[in-house]
Write a structure and sequence with these properties.
- The chain has 167 residues and is mainly α.
- Helices cover 71% and strands 2% of the residues.
- It has a single domain (32-161), classed as Butyryl-CoA Dehydrogenase, subunit A, domain 3.
- It contains five helices and two strands, in the order αββαααα.
- The N and C termini lie far apart (46 Å).
Length: 167
Protein backbone atom coordinates (compact mmCIF):
# COMPACT_ATOMS: atom_id res chain seq x y z
CA UNK A 1 0.00 0.00 0.00
CA UNK A 2 1.39 3.38 -0.97
CA UNK A 3 0.19 6.70 0.41
CA UNK A 4 1.41 9.56 -1.78
CA UNK A 5 1.46 12.91 -0.05
CA UNK A 6 -0.16 11.59 3.11
CA UNK A 7 0.93 13.19 6.35
CA UNK A 8 1.98 10.73 8.96
CA UNK A 9 4.29 9.97 11.79
CA UNK A 10 6.15 6.68 12.16
CA UNK A 11 5.10 4.69 15.20
CA UNK A 12 8.48 3.79 16.59
CA UNK A 13 10.23 4.09 19.87
CA UNK A 14 7.68 4.68 22.58
CA UNK A 15 4.71 3.29 20.60
CA UNK A 16 5.49 -0.26 21.73
CA UNK A 17 4.51 0.34 25.39
CA UNK A 18 1.23 1.94 24.26
CA UNK A 19 0.45 -1.08 22.09
CA UNK A 20 1.29 -3.44 24.97
CA UNK A 21 -1.02 -1.47 27.30
CA UNK A 22 -3.83 -1.60 24.75
CA UNK A 23 -3.43 -5.35 24.27
CA UNK A 24 -3.28 -5.85 28.04
CA UNK A 25 -6.50 -3.84 28.49
CA UNK A 26 -8.16 -5.83 25.71
CA UNK A 27 -7.13 -9.13 27.28
CA UNK A 28 -8.35 -8.03 30.71
CA UNK A 29 -11.72 -6.96 29.35
CA UNK A 30 -11.99 -10.10 27.22
CA UNK A 31 -11.91 -12.10 30.46
CA UNK A 32 -15.15 -10.35 31.44
CA UNK A 33 -16.73 -11.36 28.14
CA UNK A 34 -15.58 -14.93 28.69
CA UNK A 35 -17.11 -14.80 32.16
CA UNK A 36 -20.39 -13.64 30.64
CA UNK A 37 -20.30 -16.53 28.19
CA UNK A 38 -19.68 -19.06 30.95
CA UNK A 39 -22.41 -17.63 33.19
CA UNK A 40 -25.02 -17.56 30.40
CA UNK A 41 -24.15 -21.07 29.26
CA UNK A 42 -24.30 -22.43 32.80
CA UNK A 43 -27.65 -20.74 33.48
CA UNK A 44 -29.18 -22.02 30.25
CA UNK A 45 -27.86 -25.53 30.79
CA UNK A 46 -29.20 -25.74 34.36
CA UNK A 47 -32.58 -24.47 33.12
CA UNK A 48 -32.65 -26.99 30.27
CA UNK A 49 -31.67 -29.96 32.45
CA UNK A 50 -34.52 -29.09 34.81
CA UNK A 51 -37.04 -29.01 31.94
CA UNK A 52 -35.86 -32.03 29.95
CA UNK A 53 -37.20 -35.37 31.20
CA UNK A 54 -35.84 -38.86 30.72
CA UNK A 55 -37.16 -41.97 32.46
CA UNK A 56 -39.94 -39.79 33.95
CA UNK A 57 -37.39 -37.62 35.78
CA UNK A 58 -35.71 -34.30 34.96
CA UNK A 59 -32.29 -35.03 33.50
CA UNK A 60 -30.83 -32.52 35.93
CA UNK A 61 -31.75 -34.83 38.80
CA UNK A 62 -29.17 -37.43 37.74
CA UNK A 63 -26.10 -37.32 39.96
CA UNK A 64 -23.52 -37.43 37.18
CA UNK A 65 -25.02 -34.32 35.56
CA UNK A 66 -25.25 -32.56 38.92
CA UNK A 67 -21.53 -33.14 39.43
CA UNK A 68 -20.65 -31.78 35.99
CA UNK A 69 -22.77 -28.68 36.55
CA UNK A 70 -21.40 -28.17 40.07
CA UNK A 71 -17.83 -28.32 38.75
CA UNK A 72 -18.71 -25.83 36.03
CA UNK A 73 -20.31 -23.55 38.61
CA UNK A 74 -17.11 -23.60 40.70
CA UNK A 75 -14.99 -22.78 37.66
CA UNK A 76 -17.36 -19.95 36.72
CA UNK A 77 -17.20 -18.47 40.22
CA UNK A 78 -13.40 -18.59 40.10
CA UNK A 79 -13.47 -16.97 36.67
CA UNK A 80 -15.66 -14.20 38.08
CA UNK A 81 -13.05 -13.48 40.76
CA UNK A 82 -10.19 -13.42 38.25
CA UNK A 83 -12.06 -11.28 35.69
CA UNK A 84 -13.22 -8.77 38.31
CA UNK A 85 -9.71 -8.55 39.73
CA UNK A 86 -8.31 -7.85 36.25
CA UNK A 87 -10.97 -5.21 35.56
CA UNK A 88 -10.29 -3.56 38.92
CA UNK A 89 -6.53 -3.58 38.31
CA UNK A 90 -7.03 -2.01 34.88
CA UNK A 91 -9.41 0.63 36.25
CA UNK A 92 -7.15 1.63 39.14
CA UNK A 93 -3.81 1.35 37.35
CA UNK A 94 -2.56 -1.17 39.89
CA UNK A 95 1.08 -2.27 39.87
CA UNK A 96 -0.24 -5.84 39.62
CA UNK A 97 -2.26 -5.24 36.45
CA UNK A 98 -0.03 -7.42 34.26
CA UNK A 99 -0.30 -10.31 36.73
CA UNK A 100 -4.07 -9.86 37.18
CA UNK A 101 -4.69 -9.86 33.43
CA UNK A 102 -2.45 -12.88 32.83
CA UNK A 103 -4.24 -14.83 35.58
CA UNK A 104 -7.66 -13.82 34.25
CA UNK A 105 -6.91 -14.84 30.68
CA UNK A 106 -5.10 -18.04 31.65
CA UNK A 107 -8.18 -19.07 33.61
CA UNK A 108 -11.15 -17.52 31.79
CA UNK A 109 -10.39 -18.74 28.27
CA UNK A 110 -10.50 -22.48 29.01
CA UNK A 111 -13.49 -22.09 31.35
CA UNK A 112 -15.56 -20.36 28.66
CA UNK A 113 -14.71 -23.08 26.15
CA UNK A 114 -15.47 -25.83 28.66
CA UNK A 115 -18.78 -24.19 29.58
CA UNK A 116 -19.74 -24.12 25.90
CA UNK A 117 -18.70 -27.73 25.37
CA UNK A 118 -20.59 -28.89 28.46
CA UNK A 119 -23.66 -26.91 27.40
CA UNK A 120 -23.55 -28.52 23.98
CA UNK A 121 -23.22 -31.99 25.51
CA UNK A 122 -25.90 -31.52 28.15
CA UNK A 123 -28.37 -29.99 25.70
CA UNK A 124 -28.09 -33.15 23.63
CA UNK A 125 -29.21 -33.07 20.00
CA UNK A 126 -30.98 -29.71 20.29
CA UNK A 127 -27.67 -28.01 21.06
CA UNK A 128 -26.30 -29.00 17.65
CA UNK A 129 -29.18 -27.55 15.65
CA UNK A 130 -29.13 -24.17 13.93
CA UNK A 131 -32.31 -23.26 15.80
CA UNK A 132 -30.53 -23.29 19.15
CA UNK A 133 -27.82 -20.68 19.91
CA UNK A 134 -25.45 -22.96 21.87
CA UNK A 135 -23.25 -23.59 18.83
CA UNK A 136 -22.78 -19.83 18.40
CA UNK A 137 -21.53 -19.54 21.97
CA UNK A 138 -19.10 -22.39 21.38
CA UNK A 139 -17.72 -20.62 18.31
CA UNK A 140 -17.40 -17.37 20.25
CA UNK A 141 -15.69 -19.07 23.21
CA UNK A 142 -13.20 -20.79 20.88
CA UNK A 143 -12.46 -17.55 19.02
CA UNK A 144 -12.09 -15.60 22.27
CA UNK A 145 -9.68 -18.23 23.63
CA UNK A 146 -7.08 -17.31 20.99
CA UNK A 147 -8.03 -13.70 20.21
CA UNK A 148 -5.45 -11.98 22.43
CA UNK A 149 -3.12 -14.87 23.17
CA UNK A 150 -3.75 -18.45 24.19
CA UNK A 151 -4.14 -19.52 27.80
CA UNK A 152 -0.73 -21.17 27.50
CA UNK A 153 0.87 -17.92 26.42
CA UNK A 154 -0.74 -16.11 29.35
CA UNK A 155 0.47 -18.82 31.76
CA UNK A 156 4.01 -18.44 30.39
CA UNK A 157 3.75 -14.66 30.75
CA UNK A 158 2.49 -15.08 34.31
CA UNK A 159 5.39 -17.39 35.16
CA UNK A 160 7.81 -14.79 33.83
CA UNK A 161 6.09 -11.96 35.72
CA UNK A 162 6.31 -13.75 39.06
CA UNK A 163 9.74 -15.23 38.30
CA UNK A 164 8.52 -18.82 38.38
CA UNK A 165 10.85 -21.26 36.67
CA UNK A 166 9.37 -24.05 34.58
CA UNK A 167 10.07 -27.58 35.85
Amino acid sequence: VTFDGAAGRPLTGDAAPAVRRALRAGAGLLASEQLGLAEWLLTQTVRYTRERHQFNRPVGSFQSLKHRLAQLWLETVNTRAAARNAADALATGSDDTDVAVAVAQAYAAPVAVRAAEEALQLHGGIGMTWEHPIHLYLKRAKADSIALGTAGRHRAELAELVDLQAP
